[in-house]
């Protein structure tokens, strides 16, 4: 078979990323060579491909769902917010500058359409099917003229569009109808129908509404996906703090203040629970680093923003951030800097990753990211950091704590390590560790060795489970997404849509109807 599909959404976080991944996993299980694609992504969670290109983590996850190697072709434009009004523009995996939202949407975005279409064409030439993910909503009519990720790319490729709506938020029928009605006739002609996401309850109670939606729009619903607990898959749009996250077996817990807390599977009898607190710094990036910790039985992970929340933590993680200097100021304003210093003096474990590692050092010279110049850091590690205009993008591998480790690096800061014990190209002093490596905790042997060190320093009776494989858990999650599509969507109709393209003769839905 051959063809493609655009998965759009009524809103950000409607479930486009996971639906795209689910369709990719379902198709590859049918023997279809499939690739994911997102022309433009806005995210602080990114990944480095084997050729050294930076792309959104969601596209890397979708590539894994499709069982293909992620490449820059799958996400040619990545926007990494540095504030509410500006972002770093990453083109074909490399940063090309900072732009304000007005500067980008005012003309620069449309100039990238050619590159985006070329990438999509190259993927189509080497794969049977390409499943595209949209961004935000296709009905953002103020941005339609320069759109390169929603209806703009669908029209350029001639792809049919399925619109995903999150019924758990409420108002999904209005969202479907309003999204369709606001589109121009040429765009409406590509919208084949809808996919309801996160439904709880008896689907027969929903069916009359789906029939009425068809009567109003002339477009069918391709499936009703049930609410699936504990997927923990890398979703990313925008720059918000992550939602509550837990892996597929609910083995761990990751939560935010005020968020719904998932249950944690207790460790074996006679062992303690290990508590991990993650400082929810501004512009937090790659918070997925802690997912592997939450996958361990008996490990509880929570995001915190107050010093008192560190009191019972056995390990505190200062995660990556797009704004190291801003994160430093935030840590000091919140009283977390003093709490971290007390922990270090008491020999209680702290781990800094990327920007968090830089913050734990002695001194920062930043004329690139914040342009703040010389800034004193927290002084917990013998490291001086200078921000370089060039971004380091790498996929390092090595050994630590007697175990093999792999990771990836995404940073402008260049660390001059002046002492301590070597640790993943960073260093360790007592119970304080720092590294630029993201993803290192996904290496199972290293993660277990690290948790044993943390438990010993914290005085806990905790032994990591010897059979926990983060890679296997991730595969299980992706299979669950494939199952959701296979079991709850009309797959025959989706296959026909992918192969045949947009159905002709769909009625125009005028704004204000009925």
Automatic annotation (TrEMBL):
The keyword Glycosyltransferase does not apply. Keywords: Cobalamin biosynthesis, Glutamine amidotransferase. The keyword Acetylation does not apply. GO terms for biological process: cobalamin biosynthetic process. Pathway: Cofactor biosynthesis; adenosylcobalamin biosynthesis. Catalyzes amidations at positions B, D, E, and G on adenosylcobyrinic A,C-diamide. NH(2) groups are provided by glutamine, and one molecule of ATP is hydrogenolyzed for each amidation. HAMAP family: CobQ (MF_00028). Belongs to the CobB/CobQ family. CobQ subfamily. This is Cobyric acid synthase. The lineage of its organism: Bacteria, Bacillati, Actinomycetota, Actinomycetes, Kitasatosporales.
């Amino acid at each position: 078979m051959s063809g493609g599909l655009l998965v759009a959404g009524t809103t950000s976080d409607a479930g486009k990323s996971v639906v795209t991944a689910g369709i990719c996993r379902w198709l590859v299980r049918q023997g279809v060579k499939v690739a994911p694609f997102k022309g433009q992504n806005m995210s602080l969670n990114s990944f480095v491909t084997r050729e050294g290109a930076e792309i959104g983590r969601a596209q890397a996850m979708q590539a894994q769902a499709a069982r293909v190697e992620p490449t820059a072709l799958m996400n040619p434009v990545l926007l990494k917010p540095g504030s509410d009004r500006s972002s770093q523009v990453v083109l074909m995996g490399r940063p090309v500058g900072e732009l304000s939202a007005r500067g980008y949407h005012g003309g620069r975005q449309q100039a990238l359409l050619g590159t985006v279409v070329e990438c999509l064409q190259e993927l189509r030439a080497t794969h049977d099917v390409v499943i595209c993910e949209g961004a935000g909503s296709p009905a953002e009519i103020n941005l339609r003229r320069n759109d390169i990720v929603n209806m703009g790319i669908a029209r350029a490729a001639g792809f049919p569009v399925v619109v995903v709506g999150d019924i758990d938020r409420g108002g999904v029928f209005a969202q479907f109808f309003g999204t369709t009605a606001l589109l121009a006739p040429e765009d409406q002609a590509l919208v084949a129908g809808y996919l309801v996401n996160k439904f709880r309850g008896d689907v027969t109670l929903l069916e009359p509404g789906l029939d009425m939606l068809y009567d109003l729009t002339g477009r069918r619903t391709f499936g009703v996906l049930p609410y699936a607990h504990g997927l923990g898959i890398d979703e990313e749009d925008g720059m918000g703090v992550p939602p509550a996250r837990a892996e597929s077996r609910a083995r761990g817990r990751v939560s935010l203040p005020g968020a719904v807390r998932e249950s944690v599977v207790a460790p074996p009898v006679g062992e303690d629970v290990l508590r991990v607190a993650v400082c929810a710094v501004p512009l937090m990036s790659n918070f997925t680093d802690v997912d592997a910790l939450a996958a361990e039985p008996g490990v509880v992970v929570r995001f915190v923003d107050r010093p008192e929340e560190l009191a019972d933590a056995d390990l505190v993680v200062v995660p990556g951030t797009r704004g190291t200097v801003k994160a430093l100021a935030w840590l000091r304003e919140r009283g977390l800097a003093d709490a971290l210093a007390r922990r270090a003096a008491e020999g209680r474990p702290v781990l800094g990753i990327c920007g968090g590692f830089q913050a734990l050092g002695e001194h920062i010279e930043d004329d690139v990211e914040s342009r703040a110049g010389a800034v004193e850091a927290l002084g917990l590690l013998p490291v001086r950091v200078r921000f370089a205009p060039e971004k380091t993008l790498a996929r390092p591998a090595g050994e630590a704590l007697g175990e093999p480790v792999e990771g990836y690096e995404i940073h402008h800061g260049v660390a001059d390590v002046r002492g301590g014990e070597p640790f993943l190209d960073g260093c360790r002093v007592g119970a304080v560790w720092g590294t630029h490596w993201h993803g290192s905790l996904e290496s199972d042997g290293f993660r277990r060795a690290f948790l044993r060190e943390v438990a010993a320093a914290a005085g806990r009776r905790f032994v990591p489970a010897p059979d926990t494989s983060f890679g296997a858990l991730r595969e299980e999650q992706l299979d669950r997404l494939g199952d959701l599509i296979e079991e709850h969507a009309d797959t025959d109709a989706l296959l026909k849509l992918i192969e045949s393209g947009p159905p002709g003769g769909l009625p125009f839905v005028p704004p204000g109807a009925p």
